[in-house]
Design brief:
The complex is a heterodimer of chains A (454) and B (512). With 454 residues, chain A is an alpha/beta fold. Chain A is 40% helix and 22% strand. A five-stranded parallel sheet of chain A has the order 2-1-3-8-9, with helices on both faces. Chain A has a four-stranded mixed sheet with strand order 7-10-11-14. Chain A is globular, with a radius of gyration of 26 Å. In chain B, helix 12 crosses helix 13. Classes of the chains: A alpha/beta (454), B mainly alpha (512). Chains A and B meet through helix 1 and helix 9 of A and helix 1, helix 9 and helix 20 of B.
């Protein structure tokens, strides 16, 4: 039994101290091994994020980073950018990444690379309303996509300390704690083991192929999500984020992080550009108050004298992308769309701010009126037992709609004959197909039909 | 701030590191600041109560000692007056905060019988956490100074730390000045051995609390909150488990307190000594909540005459002390009944003990009676055989478990309802058909729970045999120590009740 003081540094006792140090280190090491084992058995990982982080840590000399949510990894092809600018481009995009997450990811990247340009994408959903509150539980869950994979560093610890309440520290530091309900769930554990011992998992591979062996969806290096999927017409009903409408601006704590990112870049002499990728009109129309969000970011950008480009306000004559074939779903471009969008994106962000103005409208309101009249789909929200639908089109009164429903059970019925009314409701338990036939009042013979699943 | 909370996990290492970074002579001041911060996490205003209690007892003790120095050791009217005032003030404070609502309720009932309008309850008094503990500790100090058994501390801050030392502030152990104050006055260097032992005690305490007690709480709450739906063996099962819940809860707290304290080089009293290996209720109370039992013995039972004034008086004293102990635990009739019941068990035990001894003398036989041995609490290697001892232990456990029903129930009515429900049916099949797994704890977690109880009982058996298990572990090789520490930590993290999916239970004794 050793009774000497713990805190005495006596050279004669160096061996004793060494032994104690080894003991403490051994305890920590064994605990680490045990916790990693629990993580391996219980944590259900997001494969995309895991591969992205792995890929990031082995990538050297990144010059340009495109930082943002999944819209970045779907919409921007860094290989095209490499060819265009001769630099090393990387999509550091994590699903629904919040701005606090973006801030600490950026700090992580500046520690590893000499970044020249930062392009911060500001998709509205993770930045507005309740979703946008960086301290909310929802935000925390998405931020775990970062903390679960980011390497240990002071930056990471600062992120953890800032992103959650004290009672969430353990869940954040030790991911297996979040999955404790599966402690005795053998099928779940077996599933995790099967997944984590598979070759694709071990080789950080994410690839789906068609019958000819051609990739339809694949993780490609540099954080690029290759995806050939096309938004099916029958799925063009978009669930509206209702809190955007009521709180359609960034909460103060989110805007604070936007400012912190900008100030950090300016402090480090890194060029920063703010931008918003194009999303399908159905979704953007569902926001109703989109322009208020745009104006908020514009005000911040103007304050710091940095460029801001909202590609949802881009005139179709310069970027004719708003077609279903270019989208994988209502929010994300597919690779066809990315191929179309990426060169234009680079042309804009690398161009002169003044010249760029001609590409963009002042507001979304203005932009849709420039486009030809069109019906894009539907958006809806739940109100009690009812699902309330609105037809997403770029005209208020010029288009008439005939709405017919083909329920799974029962007979076809016409909800509305040609009328300018855009709104109707259905019971939330009722399912089938909706047929929306639209026509211009002035050209009743030219009709356009949409078939949408409901 | 709960010991099993993230706040404590942050608070404690900070206090620990700063403590050893500071010069020795000011460390106690840091501990005092930390203790006050710890206490203020509940209700910042109640710190005034703690300070008030500290000031009163400090001045009282100083006055008593000064009087002794001036007038000598003989009896003094002045000393006695100071003591009485001090006791009255502190008991009034305790009475007001703890028993105001209770007595007012009964007083109003009496008034209503007499058709007098009741006194309006304009406000409800919030019980300051730990008040019962620190008042007893401070009173014990004044009594000791009065009796000349200890000195009156001159350093007010050091004395304030004695009253408020955070590891034992809210739920004991109720320390004597001879133990704690002297250690605070002469801080020792932290040895590697104490460091390891302290950490081991903390994780073991957390294991008892988080893995065993809080898991059991789910079952007990399910059954006790809806006893109409869970009659017979469900109640028996819950009562059995509650015996371990309260033990693991309180023992867990005390062990964490001891471990935390040891990391500051301060050794606290061990509040438990394998209580469920007791062969009699009397022995149980020598092993359970030792610091409280000894406090009541030294400052209430003995001054009342103890066993020096005849058998009848002795038994009356016993009943009275246990009644007071019940009332100390909570302002409810069920606690008083719980206390009396424990006292009554001992009175009956004493009577039976004498009867069997007399019968033994008459018959001249070699075998002592059941109760006699039970009361003596002899170990099987000393007297009797193992099986007899086991029977005594089981009988004692059953008797104690019955009393816990009164303890667990908030109200007397609820306790009686539980007892009625207990004997309403004999549905033993619930243990075979898996019904017990529908009480909020799955089959797998039930196994973990019982495995935890097995570990606890194994550790306690060694303790019962006079071995300090933490010392035993520390005598083994480093790898064994690491294995114990890591296993307990991992068990807490994987099987412990904490976080969002569980309603973390407050320590039961915090309410007292």
């Amino acid at each position: 039994m050793i009774h000497s003081s713990l805190f005495t540094s006596n050279s004669n006792r160096i061996k004793v101290h060494l032994r104690r140090t080894v003991t403490v280190a051994a305890v920590l090491l064994v605990l680490l091994i045990v916790f990693r084992t629990f993580d391996f058995l219980y944590v259900k990982e997001d494969n995309w994020t895991r591969i992205l982080w792995h890929n990031y840590y082995k990538t050297e000399n990144i010059d340009n980073v495109f930082l943002g949510s999944s819209h970045v990894h779907c919409d921007i092809d860094p290989f095209i950018l490499d060819e265009m600018n001769g630099m090393e481009n990387f999509n550091m995009s994590i699903p629904f990444m919040r701005l606090n997450g973006a801030y600490y990811v950026l700090k992580e990247m500046t520690g590893d690379h000499e970044l020249k340009n930062v392009y911060l994408e500001l998709y509205y959903v993770p930045s507005t309303g309740k979703q946008g509150d960086v301290m909310s539980d929802v935000s925390l869950q998405w931020n775990w996509y970062i903390t679960d994979h980011m390497r240990f560093s002071i930056n990471k610890m600062q992120f953890i300390a800032s992103m959650c309440r004290k009672d969430k520290y353990l869940d954040t530091l030790f991911p297996f704690i979040r999955y404790r309900e599966h402690v005795f769930d053998t099928p779940y554990i077996v599933e995790q083991l099967a997944l984590k011992t598979s070759d694709d998992y071990k080789n950080y591979k994410l690839r789906y192929e068609d019958e000819n062996g051609e990739p339809t969806l694949e993780y490609r290096d540099k954080g690029y999500h290759y995806n050939l999927g096309v938004m099916p017409e029958y799925t063009m009903a978009y669930f509206r984020e209702i809190d955007f409408q009521t709180e359609g601006v960034m909460p103060p704590n989110t805007e604070a992080y936007l400012r912190k990112i900008i100030e950090y870049c300016q402090e480090k002499n890194i060029n920063i550009t703010l931008f918003i990728n194009p999303i399908y009109e159905t979704q953007i129309l569902s926001t109703i108050e989109y322009d208020s969000y745009h104006q908020q970011i514009l005000a911040v950008a103007d304050e710091y004298e940095i460029p801001f480009y909202d590609f949802n306000l881009c005139k179709s004559e310069y970027l004719d992308i708003m077609h279903r074939e270019n989208f994988a779903d209502a929010g994300h471009l597919n690779s066809v769309g990315a191929e179309l969008f990426t060169p234009f994106l680079w042309k804009v962000v690398s161009g002169d701010t003044g010249t760029n103005q001609k590409y963009f409208c002042e507001s979304y309101e203005e932009k849709i009126l420039l486009d030809d009249p069109e019906t894009y789909g539907l958006y809806y929200f739940y109100d009690g037992d009812m699902r309330k639908y609105t037809i997403a089109s770029n005209r208020k009164t010029e288009i008439e709609y005939k709405i017919t429903i083909l329920p799974e059970e029962g007979e076809e019925r016409v909800l509305q004959d040609f009328s300018v009314n855009k709104e109707f409701e259905l019971h939330r338990d009722e399912h089938g197909m909706l047929m929306v036939v639209s026509r211009l009042k002035t050209q009743p013979d030219q009709q356009h039909t949409l078939e949408i699943k409901y | 701030m709960l010991f099993n909370s993230i706040d404590y996990l942050i608070f404690f290492p900070i206090v620990f590191l700063v403590y050893y970074a500071l010069p020795k002579r000011v460390r106690y001041i840091w501990l005092l600041i930390a203790s006050y911060c710890f206490y203020m996490r509940w209700n910042p205003w109640y710190i005034m109560l703690l300070i008030g209690c500290t000031v009163i007892t400090y001045i009282s003790a100083r006055l008593i000692e000064r009087d002794r120095q001036q007038r000598g050791k003989g009896a003094s009217h002045c000393r006695r007056t100071v003591l009485i005032i001090c006791v009255l003030v502190l008991l009034s404070v305790l009475g007001y905060f703890k028993y105001y609502d209770f007595f007012l309720g009964y007083f109003n009932k009496m008034l209503s019988i007499l058709h007098i309008s009741p006194i309006d309850r304009r406000f409800s008094v919030l019980l300051p956490v730990g008040i019962s503990f620190y008042i007893l500790q401070a009173l014990g100090y004044v009594f000791d100074v009065y009796r000349g058994e200890t000195y009156a501390e001159k350093n007010f801050l050091r004395y304030a730390l004695f009253v408020s030392f955070f590891p034992q502030l809210v739920a004991g152990p109720i320390e004597r000045s001879k133990n704690l104050l002297t250690q605070l006055a002469k801080p020792v260097r932290l040895s590697w051995h104490d460091f390891c032992k302290g950490l081991l005690l903390i994780v073991y305490g957390l294991f008892c609390k988080m893995v065993i007690a809080d898991r059991i709480a789910i079952v007990v709450n399910t059954v006790y909150d809806d006893s109409a739906s869970y009659p017979g063996m469900y109640i028996a099962y819950a009562a059995f488990l509650f015996s371990f819940q309260i033990y693991c809860d309180f023992y867990g707290y005390s062990t964490i307190a001891r471990g935390s304290s040891l990391l500051f080089g301060i050794k606290l009293t061990d509040n438990f000594n394998a209580p469920y290996y007791s062969g009699s209720v009397k022995e149980f109370w020598r092993r359970w909540h030792i610091s409280l039992s000894s406090w009541f013995r030294d400052y209430l039972y003995i001054p009342l005459g103890g066993n020096r004034k005849g058998e009848v008086r002795k038994e009356c004293n016993l009943l009275f002390v246990f009644g007071v102990s019940g009332l100390w635990h909570g302002a409810s009739v069920s606690f008083i009944v719980w206390g009396f019941l424990n006292g009554l068990y001992q009175v009956i035990g004493d009577v039976l003990h004498k009867l069997t001894n007399r019968m033994h003398q008459i018959s001249g036989g070699l075998n002592s009676g059941y109760v006699s041995e039970m009361e003596q609490g002899h170990r099987p290697d000393q007297r009797g055989v193992f099986s007899r001892r086991l029977l005594h232990v089981i009988m004692t456990f059953i008797l104690i478990t019955m009393t816990w029903i009164f303890f667990a129930a908030d109200q007397m009515k609820a306790a009686l309802r539980l007892i009625k429900q207990l004997f309403s049916t004999f549905n033993w099949e619930i243990f075979l058909d898996g019904s017990v797994y529908n009480l909020g704890v799955t089959k797998e977690y039930t196994r973990v729970m019982f495995l935890g109880i097995a570990v606890l009982m194994a550790v306690d058996y060694l303790k019962y045999k006079g071995k300090d298990v933490a010392e035993l572990v520390l005598k083994q090789g480093e790898w064994f120590q690491i294995l114990c520490f890591v296993s307990l930590t991992a068990a807490c993290m994987l099987f412990g009740c904490y976080g969002e999916i569980y309603d973390t239970q407050q320590f039961i004794y915090f309410q007292f």
